[in-house]
Design brief:
By secondary structure, the chain is α+β, with helices and mostly antiparallel strands. The chain has one domain (7-89): Outer Surface Protein A, domain 3 (Alpha-Beta Complex), CATH 3.90.930. It has helices at 37-45, 52-62, 67-83; strands at 7-9, 13-18, 21-26, 32-35, 87-89. Helix 1 packs across helix 3 and helix 2 (52-62) crosses helix 3. The protein is globular, with a radius of gyration of 13 Å.
């Protein structure tokens, strides 16, 4: 993955909170991903306009004490989202 790529949510994926769990799911495929708060924020930032670097910058500004882990965590989560078909890089 290149940090200049732009992740975009794919249709029919939804982020919901159910019984205290954050779930990202696709209705017809029955794919379910359990997300933490950071994954939820990253998902919401995948708007088809922001680059991977933009997302990392937003998170780093919000959580400056965690900048080192944010880079790897963001890349890892985006790769998981892509593998599950939840995002596409445009």
């Amino acid at each position: 993955m290149n940090i200049t790529q732009i992740p975009k949510k794919q249709p029919d994926y939804y982020l919901e909170v159910m019984d205290g769990e954050i779930l990202l799911f696709h209705l017809s495929r029955r794919n379910i991903l359990y997300c933490n708060q950071t994954a939820s924020i990253i998902w919401q930032l995948c708007d088809g306009k922001r680059t991977v670097q933009d997302i990392i910058t937003v998170l780093s500004n919000t959580y400056p004490e965690s900048t080192d882990s944010i880079i790897e965590q963001t890349k890892s989560l985006l790769e998981q989202f892509q593998k599950q078909g939840a995002i596409q890089f445009v």
